[in-house]
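**Protein of interest**
===
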Amino acid sequence: MKRGIAMRQWKIVGAVTSLTMALTLSATVAGASSAPAPHSVRASGTATSILVKWSRPTGVSVKSYVATARPSNRSCVTASTSCYVKGLHPGVSYRFSVVARSSSGTSAHSAPSNLVRVASAGTYFEKTLKSAVSQISIYETDYGNSTTTAAANTYLSKVSGAFAGLSKALSLEAWSSTAKSDVSAFIASFRTLGTDTISSLNATSSNESEADYALQSETNKETLTEAKVFADLALPQLIIAPIANTPAPGALGATQTLHDFYGDAFSVAVSQVVDPATAASGSGLPDAGYRFVAVELNIVNTSDQEVSNDANSAITVTGSDGKTYPADFGEVSQCTNFSSGFFDLPAGDSTSGCVIFQLPTSVTVQTISFSLAPGYLDTAEWSD
């Protein structure tokens, strides 16, 4: 009898020992308690890709991390302490947790992150664009107020970073098929706009006109691509539909009509090309091998708004050599350069003036292009 009791006790002890060993082995393999979890998990962004950051656990050499969204179980794997969880859904709110993988196994999940809500594509585009443009404007003002070269370079870097930041941010969104190509075109245009903005801020007197014209042209292009994205995402339009098309090239003397965002009209005509033009008294002479050419414009403000602009930045000529020439700042005797290029027209008023160019003696004017600064979307063109 005693022997039977002893045998039963031995079997029970053996079973408990086996179970304990199995549990110990399982815990070791899983690393459920031996590997500390990451901490201080933070999530940021409103796109369908959310940036998750965390702090390393102490006392363990981590091989990789897995950040997971709740709900949805979308995740990202990285060896660093941040990554983007992609493929999330607009209108849904998410928290994120992180586990660490080490030689000890996989840690428990971290405490959950803050709650983030993925915005609709339209809301995301509009808010992200507005934030970037606001930052750029502030940095450009700071650049203009800079009193040292070091400070100016700092703000130039910030301007460039704001342009790059918007492009990167928009690339994180999983755009719908209807908006995808237009957003890609907008991002490309915005990047070029950033380059042209930096060039314009850095411009010297020798290339200021050319840099301003490039910036002006790219700004108009960016505005058009932005309008297409706004239409794709059913956002309120700044531009009155339909967006005006660029007029067909006209002959000298033909009136071309440009339109602003609100549909207001503005008329301009090239009345004549003075070739060669004679340097005015007190003005510098053209460079060796070049001559002055003056393009005379008649401008009529047919809108109900005052229009101010710089004709020198608005107009270029293309020569018979295929090159585009920006305005020169010389003066000629045949006509005046508005008010150093600037004109200010009340509604219904008109003005005339010349824009001066330096062309090589062997090059003739082929086409003339006129595009007002941002706000007017058309480009008028004439063939000589």
Summary: DSSP finds six helices and 19 strands in the chain. The domain at 39-117 is CATH 2.60.40.10 (Immunoglobulin-like). The longest helix spans residues 2-30. Helices lie at 2-30, 121-144, 149-171, 177-202, 208-232, 311-314.
